[in-house]
Amino acid sequence: MSQMVRSAARSVFASRGRFLLTGAAVALSVAFLAATLVLTDSMRGRAAADIAEALAGTDAVVQGVELGEPGGGPGDPARSVQRSLGPDITERVVAVDGVAGAAPQWVGFAKLVVDGSSVGTGTASDVGRNWVDDPALNPFRLASGQPPTEVGEIVIDRSLADNAGVAAGDVVRVLTATGMHDATVTGIATFASANAAPLQRTVLLPDAAVSAWLDTEAPTEVLVDVAEGADRTEVLARLSALSDAEVVDGPDHIRTMQDAATSPLQFLNVFLLAFAVVAILIGVTIIFNTFTLTVARRRRESGLLRAIGAERRHVLGGVVIEAAFVGTIATLVGLVCGVAGVDALRWVVGLTGISLLTGPPIVSPTSIAIAAAVGIGATILSAWIPARRAAATPPIEALRESAAEPRAVSRARTASGLVLAAAAIAGGAMAVVNSNPVWLTLAVAIVPALVLCGPAIVTATARWSSPAARRTAGVSGSIAAGNLAASPRRSASTALALMLGTAMVTMFAIFASSLTSGVGTDVREGLEADLVVTSATPDVSTIDPALADRIAALPDVEAVTALSSAEGIVAGKAEAIGGIDPTALPTMFDLDPIAGDLADLSSGGVAVVGDDPARLGGTLEIEFERSTVEAPIVAVVSRSIGGFEAPLYFVDAATLDASVGRQLDAQVFVDLADGAAADAEEDVSALVRDTPGSFLATQEEHVASRGSEIAAFGNFIDGMLVLASLIALLGVANTTALAINERSGELGLLRAVGATRRALRRIVRLEAALLSFAAASIGIAVATGFGWAMIDVTGGTEIPSVVVPWLRLAVTLVIAVAAGVVAAAWPAFRVSRMPVLDLVSGDR
Amino acid sequence: MSPHPDSAVVDQHGSALSSDADDAAAMLVGAVKRYGAGESAVAALDDVTIAFPAGKFTAVMGPSGSGKSTMMHCAAGLDRLTSGRAFVGSTDLSTLDDRELTLLRRERIGFVFQTFNLVQTLTAEENICLPLTLSGRRPSGDVLDQVVSLLRLGDRLRHRPSELSGGQQQRVAVARALVARPQVVFADEPTGNLDTRTGQEILGFLRSAVDEDHQSIVMVTHDPNAAAWADRVVFVVDGHVHDVMDRPSADAVLDVVKGLGR
């Protein structure tokens, strides 16, 4: 056995180059997988641990009666809407027997403003809450300075302080629901031991400032400390007897908070893991190809061994040990790189705007074990298959036969692939026709179909592209096209990896562009105002309500109207409810009423967004934080004001304010007077610039920028495209190098009969380009079809129509082909430098 | 065929050369090829001077490791000499860079190898025309027809190498070597992989190319029967030219070869 290990090691070292590439592929995929696992683990683990630590002293939480299920889509923190508590709730809680302490929590919007600009961007929300004096109940800990005591004093979380470069004693401003406030930072706090609460930027206020700044009378929740020695269960039972309130057990509360903080990650995790799987697949392909060739080249040797009496397992064992050797070393390297590369991945993920990791990554043994098992397992498995095939060959045949792969493509294989493909296409069509996503599962069969049809596709590509290649690149072209079909199975497996990579990118690109377009349609068609003031954070209201009045006071402004938005529960679901001025809005944004009259909103009615005029005259019940509104439906409109979470219901602004308290404005529409002075827009712009949390856009700009939140997602896709190309690059480089090795005699012949080095390089590059082109275009085509069917079936109202981003797909194709050519550059260069004789004699 | 430009050099190198020098298709002058360095260096060619006459069929024979293949490779511009000079016609190969050497091989030399003779992905016709298409030329129809009919390949032109027998493949290779009308054709054991009858056939084609078109051919072989088809046999032993025999017969060649073994 040890002798076998030694000989395997010797054999690996003897063909360093090939195994270096294989090893690199394994290491890279393991690194990607490990980094993904560690990152998602860490983000989840960190957030969960921070929350658990911060809330450790809270035995129970008293909160408003829950009105509906938390909403929550991709990238959304799960939220629920609760009825507000009574102002006397704290006294009532303290009065309960067995309660040692109760800390009311007022939570609202507060954005830190330093030097005229707001601090922090991305998906984290800006939260203002009161400082809790009881250290057992306070989730925050003072890191430096003093707690806030007077109105105008604040404490901010450490990550805000770091971002803004603010220290205790600095004077800043805070934008809240009641406008802009001057404030002095008295201290810096941490959330338990983390720099910030997960997905939040927190400004902590003294209790005295709560009513004036956050505009809330009653607390959002009351944190309860149960007295030592008291029976917790009994205290909880007594608390739950309180009217108009619900009590949540401390551990349950922690779990809810943890889920809320980590749910935006689910989507990201799936996405990252999908890429990791593709990375592994590419890695496996490379290993498989390499070992197939290694085994083939050693066929004679193993034939000889078998002829003189070695058993199958000897032949097989050598290869498997060799694979284990390469796999283990590469996996170790990959694990180290992966853990070290978590920061790089965190940066890429940060492009989405989701950044959750508040501390160093947590490397759990499970992540490492999974990555290691996959790395080593995949290597051994993909070496074992060709090795078994070799060992099964009768010795005499192994001695006699040449090493080349048969050129013929198995008909049965192609046929079964075609059957699967037909089933997949039929499944997609059924899904679209019946609007039933279940059929989509059948459409997934396109992946195995492609695997099975791969060699046939490659052969066909070679045949079809040959005339074109010949026309454009002469005899080099037809040689390159022909080479593609020389080992169809190997070419196909390389192509598959590339195909999967481009397919993933394509799917997400289509998803993003359809979403963007869906979000933008209403704005494109409805917006009539000259200027639009938008919130600093999309879909969160951050505009100082005073701004609309200030703009209205400008001389050349004809009309101004603001739009606010709040959450309410309609039929058990959390929905965004818009508050508008029903007389002013229609001239600036046409909601396109198809029934009823918007003007009737002022008498307490509600307008619904939809396409069914028959809803007019019905009644709608909306449960808000402070009250329940039961309103007649006075209008049905066909559009909303655009955006990710555009309201599906509109009420009068006054009604909304009365139901949820004062809100910041979400958007302000501005119409300039006809013949307004040229600098009228500049005047508005100056006012907006002085109001943090607001941005000014012209009509065209606003139409163009809707859906910009998805642009962040686009960045992430681009980052992934780069990673996918990098791994695919290895695949192409590997296949090219292998193909060159196998065909060195032929290449030598070409050189001997007069092909220049350049011509040789050209052939190799062309071959890679053809393969990449075929793979990428099939990947893009299949993903376009599948993505189209999927969005069409599951898109719903958010994505009403499928938009294929042709330009981006074209760029993807170009990048994939360019990556292929770049990957082939080094093997091409090497082979062109080799002495002709070495090539001819096959001595390399 | 241009006469050799530097007859002074030639005269220094003995009588074997002088008679043919003015009419050589290819020539080696003081050729030395050494592999390795220092004490372990092995001289595959040790000061060889020889001319391969134009319009003649020359066979190069010698035991394994005698340097006969090295001699051919260096004369054909596939390998470079350690010292000395190699000429194709009047061109001194040592003055050419890789690109010029490649162009020379493409335009003035034909090759027939023992194996790896054809590009598998091209048809027989494409393989035959390969040296021409590589330089962006088209074969003249006459020449192609002539070569194709000489080698009786008319009905095989559209086939790919994998659809041809070994003998047919080698005929395609010979056609490729001849079609550009090169100054000299080098053949490295062209019959080594063929059965006797097919081998004889190939040798017959080479012979008739010399007789009918005055093609110059240099063939490396270890088979006395193959060598007997040549106008002249050059015997190489230990990197030296041991003997030269004109108008050889198989028996005479065999006698010399037996002598070499001793």
From TrEMBL, chain A:
Membrane topology according to the record: Multi-pass membrane protein
Domain ABC3 transporter permease C-terminal: 274-395, 720-835
Protein name: ABC transporter permease
Main localization, broad class: membrane
Keywords carried by this UniProt record: Cell membrane, Membrane, Transmembrane, Transmembrane helix
InterPro entries: ABC3_permease_C, Macrolide_Exporter_MacB
Domain of life: Bacteria
Source organism: Myceligenerans salitolerans
Compartments (UniProt record): Cell membrane
Recorded family membership: Belongs to the ABC-4 integral membrane protein family.
Transmembrane segments: 267-294, 315-342, 362-385, 415-433, 439-462, 495-515, 720-741, 768-791, 806-829
Native organism taxonomy: Bacteria, Bacillati, Actinomycetota, Actinomycetes, Micrococcales
